[in-house]
Amino acid sequence: MLKIKKGDLVQVIKGKDRGKTGKALEVKLLAKRIIVEGINLAKKHKRQTRQDQQGGIISVEMPISISNLMFFCKRCNKPVRLGFMILKDNTKVRICKSCKETV
Hints:
By secondary structure, this protein is mainly beta. The protein is 0% helix and 47% strand. The protein has strands spanning 9-12, 21-28, 33-36, 41-46, 56-61, 64-65, 69-73, 78-80, 82-86, 92-96. A six-stranded antiparallel β-sheet has the order 6-3-2-1-7-8, with no helix packed on it. It has a two-stranded antiparallel ribbon with strand order 4-5.
């Protein structure tokens, strides 16, 4: 089970985009990779398929390994590790290990 989910704010800790933050758009479980908004951009050549569509070179977000990302806590304002806690009503929630706040 991955601790980072779709819609979470993450920060890159390794690679060419180190230090940048973005929102997780898509999580690929089997490959253990995540597509992050505005991170790990690659140029792709796209041809015009319809008369009203424009072709050319576009930037596309490529998947980045989950080991190169950390969850970004808004309360701590820094990248943190996540943990799990079971509440009294037997629901499992994610918590920030730094400030002990539920995510």
